[in-house]
Structures are given as C-alpha cells and as structure tokens.
Fold these 2 entries.
Entry 1:
Amino acid sequence: MNQEAIYINNEQIPQEAVLSWEYKRLKVNYKRLKRISTGAISNDFNKWQAERNIDKMREALLSIKMNLGMADLKSKLSNQYKLGNLISVIAVKLSFGRRKFSEVDFYIPKSGITIQEVASQIDDIMLINTQAHFKINLNTNPDHYILKGMSNTVQEVLEFTGGVTFAD
C-alpha cells in the first residue's frame, strides 16, 4: 500500500489511525458478506484478522464481493440500504437545510501528468464499467459494494458508511 499523507481540516492523520479504521471496517464488512454469501468463503480471513494482515483481509473482501457480483450484492443488501436511505431522508429533513460539505485535494508530486489527465483517469475508473475498474472501486474502501457507471456523468453507488453502527 502506498504511504500517502492524509489530512482532515489541515491536520495530518497518522497512518496507524487510518489502518486501524480500515481494520475495523474490514471486520464489519466481512461479517456482513459472510451472512449473505451463498458460496464458500475462506476461513483464512480469521487468521489474517488475528495477524492484523490488512492487505490479505482487503484481498479476501474484494474476492467475496467480486464472486457475488453486483446484481447479487444489490439484491441481498436491498433491505439494509433501503433502511439506510430512509434514515438519510429523515436526517436531511431534520437538518433544516444545514449541510456540511466535503472537499478533497489530490497532490501528485513529480508524477509528470496534468490535473486534467488525473481527472480524466478518475472519471474513467468511476464511470467506465470494466472488471479492473470494479476491482479498484470496490477495493478502495471496505464499505463499498457497488460503484457502477450508469452514464458518462452518473454513477450508481451502494456503500455503508463507517460511522453508522446500526447498519453493521
């Protein structure tokens, strides 16, 4: 894994904090996938969990998601994401128009590519449906289940947020 610096509100987040968060989310999502999977799932995940081998845990989760496929994931998780969507609608109504915005800055020093090329590559990964792009999108975050281009500007996303404990 690349050792990139992550900042939130101009404060650098230690790599160990990021990995600790990911470790917790990998465990939660493995349990979710184990409950809905009809195929054989390797028990090696438990060994990798005990060893805190995040790379192997990530690979196992990706393998399960890819084997299930997007249609099966969407079907089997439909009740959970319908509940999450309902709660989101209620939360928006209760916010009375107050919103928080998220901003992401990418710093790619000495890469030799322009910002337009970076943006184009990100668009391709997010919107052009290939097995390689599905793997990248699903492996980026343990909470991602579906990231699928629907048109040249629209992406279907099914994810569970790491801060919502009732979805776990």
Note: Residues 38 and 68 are 8 Å apart (CA to CA).
Entry 2:
Amino acid sequence: MAYFASCGKVATSLAATDHLGEDGVLQILGDRVVVQIVTVSPLPAFWGSVAKGSGEVKATPSAAVDWINDAIVEKAKLYASADKFSMLLAIDVVHLGVLASPDFAARYQDRYGDPSASSGFGAVWLIGPTERSVVSIGSSRW
C-alpha cells in the first residue's frame, strides 16, 4: 500500500478468496485487482540453503532475467486472457533483492520486451525486501 501512496494512488485491500487462487485483492483506481504472487526459484538447492540460514546464488544477469521470464511464462499459462488483464503479477524476489531495481527491469525489457504485453497481465512487478524495492517491469494498468 505504501508503494501506491508514494505514486499518489489510493489502494484499498479487499478480501481475497484463496480457493479461487487469489493471493490478494486490491481496489485501485476503481478496478478490482487480483494479486498473484510467484516466487522466483533460481536453483533447487537455493531454498535448502535459505532454510539453513544463508543462501548464495552465483549467476549472470542474463540467467537472472531468464528466471524472471520463466516465472512469468509459467504463471501466465494458468489463467485465461480475460482474467489476466485484471491481475497484478507480483514476482517475489525478497531473497534476491538485487533483482528489484530499475536497472534489472530495463535489462529484462531489453531482452524480452514488456511482460504485460506478452503475458496479458495488467501489470508485472518485482517485489524486493523493502517498500522502496517495488519495481514495475514495463507497462502497468495501475
């Protein structure tokens, strides 16, 4: 909500229906926006390391762009186009916070273009570890 306030937009949290696959629901600019959250998984061993208190990933920026794209493509397969138009895809990169930056979003767009246009989601955002590390990749309806 702080992100929207920083952009001068009012967002209200609404009740989500988990059994319908809603991770969250917001009211933004008069629209009912379903929030879908997907976590990026760089390597299977990464989460085991995180569970033990530390996790380290060594990869090229190009590989990280591919992780994000894979997450978008896989999530997009789950929903009809009409539904995705009213969805905000929130990509959880909390444990990979360096990816939640305008530079990384630009790198993604240089390689794959606007993910909202290609996937049909109303918006695709990278969600990092702090309120200041929320970054839209490409266009956003909100």
Note: Strands lie at 11-14, 24-28, 31-39, 87-92, 123-127, 134-136.
